[in-house]
Amino acid sequence: MYNLRMCVWEITLACCFSCKYCGSSGGKARENELTTEECLNVADQLHELGCRRVSMIGGEVFMRRDWKEIVKRLTGHGIRVNIITNGFTFKESLINDLKEVNIESVSVSLDGPEEVHDKYRQEGSYDRAVRALEALLSAGIPVSVISTLNSENVGHLEEMYSLLRKYTIYAWQLQACSPMGNAANNGIDYKFDMMGVIDFVCRHMYEAPFAMGVADNIGYFTEAEGSIRGNLSGRAYFKGCSAGISSIGIDSIGNVRGCESMYDEHFNEGNLRKETLKEIWEDPNRFAYNRKFTKEMLTGKCAECELGEYCGGGCRSYNYFVHGKIYESPFCAGGAKISE
Asked: What is the per-residue pLDDT across 100-132, written as a single tens digit (0 to 9) for each?
């Protein structure tokens, strides 16, 4: 039996942007997105399965008019909710709404200094994102920043760090741009020196006034592994992809995946208009790529690495979209080097 702890829920694909590296190709809402009543029912089903936390994403969450009602149903069940926003349409009137629904935190996407951020999103988007961040902090709402890295903005990390030090944010997460959706269609150069990013985090994580860490698609098992995932305990080791093990993704028309970054029909495990979440989650034959994983499935250098059975070859989504081999990390920063 697997215990569901975390869900990333895309409640709409509607967005004020169509960012050049948007993995979900957001912009227009999908036809026939889940209705309010359907979403409230999904919230009840998440509670029934014991889900503890939901990260609500879009598109842009605030472009869905009933977002408050959906969040309130989740938090009413004791589920902690984080909203990820680009900040462009954010208005200070939303502050009271966020407090009313007992939001846990808000994450603002900020991918570089103004000229870099706006280049990949929209002119003026940087200023609006910063204003949203400042308004949230002034209202006492916990704020984190998420930066999606590619070959260009990775060179501006020090500049970004200097900017963010001015604010009392909770955390800064660095994640690798994945070549899917718009990023693939636009030929974004997603490759960068992952070891350089890890070194950057190591230089600053103990002095930073906020938590710093890398996402699951950066790593693995360098000497700093225990501390680079936002936890200074030194014990926060990556334990393998959690898709279908303790987490799921749900899109705006009810498709269920192990992870919402596995943005391909190949990974759809069912649809909530046809089955309940319980039926999908408790079916022993779903999420087989992880639930039936054995170290013998590893390929390439991951198959030779003595740590392969622990990290499982890294992030399934990133692996799939980079080279189609879900059990082989294309850019391992540490573990695979042990066997070289």
From this structure: 999 999 999 999 999 999 998 889 999 999 999
Please state the φ and ψ torsions of residue 198, each to the nearest 5 degrees.
-65, -40
- DSSP lists the bridge partners of residue 82 as 55, 105
Q: What pLDDT sits at residue 237?
A: 85
Which residues are within 8 A (CB) of 20 and not within 5 positions of it... i.e. 6 or more apart? 119, 120, 121, 182, 183, 186, 188
Give CA–CA dist 134/106, Å, rounded: 12
Work out the number of other CB atoms within 10 angstroms of the CB of residue 330. Answer: 18
Within a 10 A sphere around the Cβ of 100, how many other Cβ atoms? 12
Q: Which of 19, 12, 17 is nearest to 57 (CA)?
A: 12
CA distances from 276 to 46, 163, 284, 287 (A): 10, 45, 15, 16
Residue type, 275: E
Q: Where are the beta strands (DSSP E) in the chain?
A: 6-10, 53-57, 80-85, 105-109, 143-149, 171-176, 211-214, 247-250, 255-257, 270-271
Q: CA 255 to CA 270: how far, in whole Å?
A: 6
* Greater pLDDT, 27 or 49: 49
Q: By C-alpha distance, which of 48, 98, 44, 97 is closest to 73? A: 44
User: What are 249-285's pLDDT values in tens digits?
Assistant: 999 999 999 999 999 999 999 999 999 999 999 999 9
d(CA 278, CA 270): 11
